[in-house]
């Protein structure tokens, strides 16, 4: 089973991003149950989804797990829906773009649902003691755009891939004053193992 895992570069004045830290950790680990490939994506509307869209056709992953950070959220956020909207007037991307009311894809459908087994993932995470919750908004910034673009490509080409987005809480070193909830990198790594196991188990049961 081929699993593509992505994280994002830092953005918006942050010096790091726990999702790219997760990707670096994955690169040092071995996962004998699956073929895992990673990417760190740029935080730009123009390029965020391009490497993944390309890989959907060349490497042909069975599963795409897109990770990013949502500072302020207390648990792992399992994003259920991506919407056809880019709207972040106060938050420039890493190329200085800050669109207002712009569609991700012109004439595209209003939204796509995640095709990951999110209910099973949530249960496994919670049973493993990792705070996890469904989220019904991936925002209107780069993470939502990436999720929408990947699901749109899979849908438009009827690709047999399960794909979706998972937001991580901030890491403790991003919030030195403790003003927002955080999650330790070790917990994020444990969460990743749970997510991988859930997907592999579900696939074996089909
Ligand atoms: N989080 C941002 C973009 C990159 C990231 O890690 C978002 O939620 O859109």
UniProtKB/TrEMBL annotation:
Keywords: Cytoplasm, Hydrolase, Protease, Thiol protease. SUPFAM superfamilies: Pyrrolidone carboxyl peptidase (pyroglutamate aminopeptidase). Pfam families: Peptidase_C15 (PF01470). One of its GO terms (molecular function) is pyroglutamyl-peptidase activity. The active site is at residue 79. InterPro entries: Peptidase_C15 (IPR000816), Peptidase_C15-like (IPR016125), Peptidase_C15-like_sf (IPR036440), PGP-I_bact-type (IPR029762), PGPEP1_Glu_AS (IPR033693). It catalyses: Release of an N-terminal pyroglutamyl group from a polypeptide, the second amino acid generally not being Pro. Its EC number is 3.4.19.3. It comes from the Bacteria. It is found in: Cytoplasm. Its main location: cytoplasm. It is an enzyme of class 3 (hydrolase). NCBIfam families: PRK13197.1 (NF009676), pyro_pdase (TIGR00504). Belongs to the peptidase C15 family. Removes 5-oxoproline from various penultimate amino acid residues except L-proline. This is Pyroglutamyl-peptidase I.
